[in-house]
Design a protein that fits this description.
Elements (H helix, E strand, L loop, with lengths): L6 E5 L6 H15 L3 E7 L8 H4 L5 H38 L6 E7 L2 H8 L3 E7 L16 H7 L4 E4 L8 E5 L4 H12 L7 E7 L3 H17 L4 E7 L3 H11 L4 E5 L5 H7 L2 H8 L4 E4 L1
Parallel strand pairs: 1-2, 1-4, 2-3, 4-5, 6-7, 6-9, 7-8, 9-10
Antiparallel strand pairs: 5-10
Length: 289
């Protein structure tokens, strides 16, 4: 029995970040030698039916005629969405093929993005998607409506893209000693994706001794990996502020960190660190759970 190779999935919707999502997904696909699949979902549930608005104010014959008209319009809208999705996939495919990426395929699914990625989880190696889709792409202080639910639902690495593509040279691991951050260290140490890169291992902790102990073991593990230059740093202050400032100061291209490690109640009361990083950073985040 053969096991199908896990794929890099790029979620695209025709928003402004679509091209960057494709470029980062293609970069990952090439580095880890995994197939790349473009995913577009068609959600019909946001269609607003107006039948109930008229049911009590028009005659039966007119109502039946209106229902027929609405059904016809909804069918036309579905066909247009389907065709639009095919055009988005084709344009993305052509964009990636200019970079000579092999083993590239496309898929279009009906339904919600969250349902799609959960259904596909076993075949996902890395999921790549934009910080905002078409609906929220002009809202700079918000993340996409479905993004948090996707991150919480999927137990696979998720790369969140928030700007133009740049081939990463320097990465940062936001390290706090948690299982998710240990997972990040293990992944960076073992994955071909990070070979030849400079890795900044950064711990924000107001207790300097604790930070030093946390960093020591993780630094040693990274230094055992081949072809990765490691720079460790201890910072104090609010984690999201210090990490974002460090990104800017040292021109970090990509940050690797754990996602939503706290409970939902904790997040509601204090605000999620992951959410704050997503909103405040202008560099892509690779999230692990």
């Amino acid at each position: 029995m053969t096991t199908k190779q896990a794929q890099v999935f790029a979620c695209i919707d025709g928003s402004a970040l679509t091209e960057s999502v494709c470029d980062y997904a293609a970069w990952i696909s090439q580095k880890v030698e995994a197939p790349l699949k473009l995913l577009h979902t068609i959600n019909h549930h946001h269609e607003t039916s107006v039948t109930s608005d008229f049911s009590g104010s028009i005659g039966l014959g007119a109502q039946e005629h209106l229902l027929e008209e609405i059904t016809s319009l909804e069918q036309q809208q579905s066909k247009l969405k389907l065709q639009q999705g095919k055009l988005i996939l084709q344009a993305a495919k052509e964009h990636i093929e200019k970079k000579a990426t092999s083993d590239l395929s496309c898929t279009q699914r009906h339904g919600d993005l969250i349902e799609a990625v959960i259904d596909l989880e076993d075949s996902i190696r890395v999921l790549v998607l934009g910080l905002r889709g078409q609906v929220h792409e002009n809202h700079e202080n918000q993340i996409g409506a479905k993004l948090e639910a996707v991150i919480r639902s999927l137990h696979r690495p998720i790369l969140i893209v928030n700007g133009a593509f740049k081939t990463p040279d320097r990465i940062m691991i936001a390290y706090d000693g948690s299982p998710a951050s240990d997972k990040a260290v293990d992944m960076v140490a073992s994955s071909p994706l990070y070979k030849g890169l400079i890795c900044h291992l950064v711990c924000v902790n107001n207790n300097e001794n604790t930070a030093a102990k946390l960093l020591e073991q993780a630094t040693n593990k990274l230094k055992e990996a081949d072809n990765i230059e490691v720079i460790s740093a201890k910072l104090t202050g609010k984690a999201e502020h210090e990490l974002c400032a460090y990104q800017e100061k040292y021109d970090i291209d990509l940050t690797v960190m754990g996602a939503f490690s706290h409970s939902r109640l904790h997040d509601m009361l204090l605000g999620s660190f992951t959410h704050k990083m997503l909103v405040n950073t202008n560099k892509p985040l690779l999230l692990l759970r």
